[in-house]
Amino acid sequence: MLETQLQLNEKGRGKFFVEENGEQLGEMEVAITDEKLIAYHTEVLPKGEGKGLAKKLLSAMVEYARSHHLKVVALCPYVFAQFKRHEELYGDIWEKSIK
After folding, report:
1. What predicted TM-score, i.e. pTM, was given to this entire model?
2. Which of 2, 47, 7 is nearest to 28 (CA)?
3. Contact 16/28 with Cβ under 8 angstroms?
4. 3-state secondary structure of 82
5. Could you give the C-alpha distances from 54 to 11, 33, 99, in angstroms and in order?
6. Taking the chain (99 residues) in consecutive chunks of 10 residues, what is each chunk's mean pLDDT?
7. Nearest to residue 78, comparing CAs of 48, 39, 33?
8. DSSP secondary-structure letter at 69?
9. Most CB contacts within 10 A, which of 16, 46, 71, 93?
10. Using CA atoms, how far apart are residues 7 and 18, in angstroms rounded to an integer?
């Protein structure tokens, strides 16, 4: 069974990651502040490709950002592409200009 989790250190840096049977198959590196969630990088291992894991990570991150009233800075090329392609889905949380 696939399980998505969030792991953060005391400084708010960490990752969303997806596991299957205790093995990590993909992750999205993030940093979280009081007002923003910065998405840096998304990676899925070859054995996890084709299972929709990047989308699963994106969904978990978006859900977290919305529930914590955070704006997302999309430095990750995958997240940026998804936000740009589907602005109607993510426009409410997308921080387009870094202040």
Report:
1. 0.93
2. 7
3. yes
4. helix
5. 25, 23, 27
6. 91 96 94 96 95 96 98 97 97 84
7. 39
8. T
9. 16
10. 11
In the numeric block, the tokens 């529930």 are attached to 67
For residue 49, give every residue at least 6 positions away whose Cβ sits within 8 Å of its Cβ, in sequence order, or none.
none
In angstroms, the CA 72 to CA 51 distance is 25
Residue indicated by tokens 């998804």: 82
Q: Which residue is it, tokens 């009081």?
A: 34
Structure tokens at 7: 């792991």
Q: Burial level of 19, CB count in 10 A (0-12/13-18/19+)?
A: middle
Q: How far apart are CA 58 and CA 18, in angstroms?
A: 11
